[in-house]
Structures
1.
Amino acid sequence: MNPAWHDAYVFFKHEEQATEPRFGRWSRAYFESGVMAQEPAGLLYQPDFISAAQERLLVAEIERLTFSEVRMHGITAKRRVAHFGWIYGFESWKITPGAPIPEFIASLRAQVATLADLAPESFAAVLVAEYPPGAGIGWHHDAPSFGESVVGVSLLSSCRLRFERGKGEQRETYELALEPRSVYVLSDTARHTWRHSIPAAKQRRYSITFRTLKHPTT
Ligand SMILES: O=C(O)CCC(=O)C(=O)O
């Protein structure tokens, strides 16, 4: 690997555990140094999954939530989160029981469950994330304590969901524009083999991520 890219890679390796992308140009140049691949197996994307009216109701409820910080290795990320069902410890990587899933998320969870062909209750963990302007999320695999399907609904603004797998000359990349009101599902290689990240966006975005448990408790 070119030494400059190596430095960027080390930076992003740290970043994936710590915080969100901060250096837009570096982030883009690093991403574009990979070989653009076909869509990862196990990635499903559907625009217009919810209506504009449903989005407005969800946003109104989300704006009333109390968000908590995401802190990893002493660094506070720009995005904030509200956990329901199960709380994922960003430092401990463990899950612990959390607040009940609120009523306003229940009908969305039922829609998501139909899409994923699972029972609504399978999605036992729900994470609402607030990305203010300039916030993103670094390279990572979704947490191993969660199960096979990870489903994300986007609200308010679009962003780019980036994927990468492999290293050096074998490194492959893929990019998907996530529109507000869209849904994506990560399973199979998109969940387990490819890492994903979201570079800092210019406008506020909310996401609601639904997760099953790797070891369901009931
Ligand atoms: O905001 C999103 O849709 C991505 C969320 C994500 O990757 C995560 O919570 O690990």
Note: The chain has one domain: 3-213.
2.
Amino acid sequence: MPIQGKSFDGRQLGGLVSRLGASISLPPIMIDETTFSYVSRVLHLTSAASRAVVIRDLFGSSGVKVELPLHSGLGEFSRRLWGEKNPDVVTHHSLIAIFQAFTEPKKYKNALEKALGCEAGVHAPLGYFGKDVLFRTTPAFCPECAQQDLKKLNFAYFRRQHQIVAAEYCSAHEKKLITACDACGSSLSFFLPLGSRCHSCASDFLMKKTEIADAHRLSRIKLSQFISLILAAEIPQVSASHRIALIRKKSQGVVPSKSGCIGSNVARFLLKLYGEDFLKKLRLDPRSTPSLGWPALLLSGATMQAHPIANALLISAFWESTTDYLEEILGSGVCETDCIFHDKKLIGAFNIDTEMLRKVYHAALHNTKPPYHQNLKPWIRAYPGLQERIRSFATRNQ
Ligand SMILES: [Zn+2]
Ligand SMILES: [Zn+2]
């Protein structure tokens, strides 16, 4: 679990104080609490003020939309909480942190700077994967966490790790998260504090329910736990080529294929492990176009280079534990063997073309037919112009 960087020192909420003419202190922000949850709680405690006033006083502008996962104003927010502009606020309280491990450091730094300032467009440097498939459009919570909060604190709050679509379970309690009221179907709201009862029909959220059996429960819990480590910045930033090479190598050990070509075998493995509905919901169905889909294209640029959930799905699936993964990714020698990135002729270029060409190149070099031609056919068909490129490459190298 993330440790709070600095505890709140009971600083006065200057603007609100003068407007309200009363002396109030900011409540402490809780471990892993989201900004929208904190705003709702402050608003609740200072019921005379409007939400816009609270947001302006906490984030420096009433235009900051804390219900959006990637909002700005965090520099001012950390100053309000801790007396200084502190990027740790992102590690502890912002969903931007989901991008930390798998985004190119320069791009992540750009996003971080935007987030600490008051500009909009924090998401711009991070690549577009579809916000609604990464982050929930209405909040979720764990019934066990809420119950503990109410007992210990007399209030409950929303945690960051529960707001990621791919995290269906609480990483601490392994309970299925609640996203809507069982009785009336109402979703929860970014604009209301978390309580024990539904805001629409007042039925009890925390009444013990039996969880519906789920064949994919264990793998989805493991994924949720991995996601919570990403958010807590416990998954190190390593170069994409290094990471992809390791995942690629690992995939061949876990899901061997006779041809050595990553393809439908990985797709089948992921579908079995996580379930079709789940992967579709994340828009990461491994069978989706083009052809064999994203895990087969372990070398393709966009998806595996920066998509936080695509990376999490594979790492969580291929490694027994996060510790094992960390040991391997941080250990030396990962790239020394079996790594196409150390093939001088192809260094630095990893995309679908390279993957095709690597095999053709291999064949040309050893004067044999391309070894995995059958497997490659659907890929080649799916990429316009690729067939010609391969043909000319092969001719050149004969
Ligand atoms: Zn929990
Ligand atoms: Zn209800």
Note: Residues 238-396 form one domain.
